[in-house]
Amino acid sequence: MKPSGLSTGCLIDVFVACLVVVNVGRDAGVAARAAVVGMNGGDSSHTPAQLVSLDVYYETLCPDSVQFIVQQLHPTLQKVGQIMNVSLIPFGIATERKQGDSYVFTCQHGAKECRGNTIQACIIHLLTLTDPALPLKFIYCMERSRDPSAAGAACAIELGVEFAPIATCASTKLGNELQHVMAQRTLSLNPKLNWVPWLVLNGVHTDEIQRKGSANLLKLICATYQGEKPSGC
Length: 233
Hints:
By secondary structure, the chain is an alpha+beta fold.
C-alpha cells in the first residue's frame, strides 16, 4: 500500500523496468559480513537492547529515497544517533537472477542506479569496521549530490577516505556478491516491499510506521525509545 501523503515516484511498477547487467562472481564468505550494517552515536550509556532499530531499504537514485536520507535520516542521526541502530540496504524495487557464477540485476532507475547501489553496498562493507558511522556520512554525501551514482570519488575526498578500494569492489566479484546480499535481504521482507524508502522499525513494518517515519522520523524515534530521552528529542 502507498503511504498517504507521499509521491508516487518510487512505487513499484510491474509494467515498466529499466534493465542493466552487472556481472561479477560470488563469494559466500562475504554474505555474513554484509548482511547487517549497524551505526549509532557510540554513546556507551545506552546498551544495544535499548537502541531503536531502523532498517532503511532504498535506491540510490529514487527521489523519495534521496529526500528521506537527506531531510529525515541524516538530521535525526545528528540529534539522537546515540539511541539508534541503523541498517542501510541499497537495492529497493529491483530484481536479480543468477547467470553462471554471478548475478544480473535489474534496477528501477536504470544502469546508473545499479552502479550506485553496488558502490554503496561496498562503502557499507569496507568502511563499517573502520567507523560504524562513516558509511552513513558517505552515503549522505552522495545522496545530496546532483548525481549520487557519480559522487563517490568527490565524497571520498571530502571525508578523507580512499576511493580506489571502493571502486575496485564495485567493479569486481566482491561488489556483485555484496549486492546479492542486499537483494536477498530485500526480497525476503515480510510484508513485501512495494515502496522505497521502506522503513522497518524494531523489526516491524506497518503503514503507520512508514507514514510517521517519512513525515517526521525524529518524532517517531523519540516516541519509540523507551529509555531516558536525549536532549535531541
